[in-house]
Design goal:
With about 400 residues, the protein is mainly alpha-helical. The protein has a single domain (about 5-195, about 200-405), classed as MFS general substrate transporter like domains (Growth Hormone, Chain: A). Helices cover about 80% and strands about 0% of the residues. It is built from 19 helices and no strands. Helix 2 packs antiparallel against helix 16.
Length: about 400
């Protein structure tokens, strides 16, 4: 892959993820504005529900843009995913609060979050598919990891600006500024996407997803399993643990932003290295070790979460994320081999986003309910172990899958 193409994909992906992550980092701040309640944890749970809406919409976006990308080209689909994200993010920035318009405020928030989810459903895997189709096989682990890490860069930008606008000297409406910036800066990404060159032939299949389901059911299930676990570790930390600490008054808004930024920066730093190493030992093997490591560390990290200091928890989160990144870094290279190019966008995007909608975006809600009904230690711990086992099963028979795909 040439540097110009990689730069265009990464910059657009950074902007896409900046916009999408803004809500996740502001959820504990926005919840009281749109879901007023005498109980801060109840308001936070309503905010978590809207957070999940973005993930539930992802499979629908994957269906739309995956079909579009397979039939009419990846470049065309990726241009409109970014345009949709820009519109929906600016829309959130202009939203009136519950105090201003009542129930219309949360309704509009849900609507724009839904649009963000549709966009992310086509973007998340589409960028990697476009890039890896123009990369030699021995470098796909590294390039796929670099593309994945660009999502973290977008998250860091969102967190950095978030930490500034939530400072004590800023006005109460300053939370809107990052949403305005995200939408406007996306215009740069649209320009870069327009300049991309594509050499992928158009599909001969009228409905590529039907080909996926009929001819590659095992590959599709594997994509669901990988997508289902892929985002769980990150949202355990930035979507459940840290916002809950903030809602309980144990950390300030600024500390929340800084903790999220630190763990994300760590992930961005190590992911390309792990991707490079996965090219040496195979993506499958790297992902197996990543899933196993998270299963082992699930109990210790929640034991620290409910009993220890914030500093000890932060160190535990870093260790946990090392294994999470080992699973995430080579995931693009792994997924890209599951389907032939004619139906790859539809198969990967819908399968992965379907798994993410069920398990990834619902992580904060599920963990909160498990913490209440099972216990704050064992409830979330069992959720991590269960989803990690699902991810492990999804990658454990890669060799046989490669042989089937190679005969297509």
């Amino acid at each position: 892959m040439n540097t110009k193409l990689l730069r265009a994909l990464i910059i657009g992906n950074v902007l896409e993820y900046y916009d999408f992550f803004l809500y996740s980092f502001f959820v504990s701040i926005l919840s009281p504005l749109f879901f007023p309640s005498s109980d801060s944890l109840t308001a936070l749970m309503m905010g978590f529900s809207v957070f999940a809406v973005g993930f539930i919409a992802r499979p629908i976006g994957a269906l739309i843009f995956g079909h579009w990308g397979d039939k009419y080209g990846r470049k065309n689909a990726l241009f409109y995913t970014l345009l949709l994200m820009a519109i929906s993010t600016i829309g959130i920035g202009f939203l009136p609060t519950y105090e201003m318009v009542g129930l219309l405020a949360p309704a509009l928030l849900i609507f724009f979050r839904l649009l963000q989810g549709l966009s992310a459903g086509g973007e998340v895997n589409g960028v990697a598919i476009f890039g890896l189709e123009q990369t030699i096989e021995t470098r796909q682990g590294f390039i796929g990891a670099v593309i994945n890490s660009s999502a973290g860069i977008g998250a860091i930008l969102a967190t950095t600006i978030g930490a500034i606008v939530t400072a004590s000297f800023m006005p109460h409406w300053a939370w809107r500024i990052p949403f305005y910036l995200g939408g406007l800066v996306a215009l740069v990404g649209l320009y870069l996407r327009k300049a991309l060159n594509e050499n992928t032939a158009k599909t001969v299949f009228p409905v590529p997803l039907l080909v996926v389901i009929r001819n590659y059911p095992l590959s599709f299930l594997k994509a669901v399993g990988v997508g289902g676990f892929l985002h769980v570790p990150f949202y355990i930390i930035v979507g459940y643990m840290n916002p809950t600490l903030h809602a309980k008054g144990l950390i300030t808004s600024t500390e929340l932003m800084l903790m999220n930024m630190a763990v994300t920066l760590f992930g961005v730093s190590v992911m390309p290295l792990l991707g490079h190493y996965s090219d040496k030992i195979s993506p499958r093997r790297m992902m197996v070790w990543g899933a196993l490591g998270q299963m082992i560390l699930a109990f210790p990290i929640f034991l620290i979460y409910i009993h220890s200091s914030v500093r000890m928890l932060f160190l535990a989160q870093i260790g946990f994320l090392m294994f999470a990144e080992a699973f995430i870094a080579p995931s693009n290279a792994y997924l890209n081999k599951l389907f032939p190019s004619e139906c790859r966008y539809s198969g990967i995007a819908f399968g992965s986003c379907f798994g993410t909608a069920i398990f990834g975006g619902t992580t904060p809600i599920i963990c909160n309910q498990l913490a209440q009904n099972v216990g704050p230690l064992w409830g979330p711990t069992l959720y991590i172990i269960g989803t990690a086992l699902m991810g492990l099963i999804a990658v454990i028979q890669l060799k046989r899958l490669f042989l089937k795909t190679a005969n297509v």
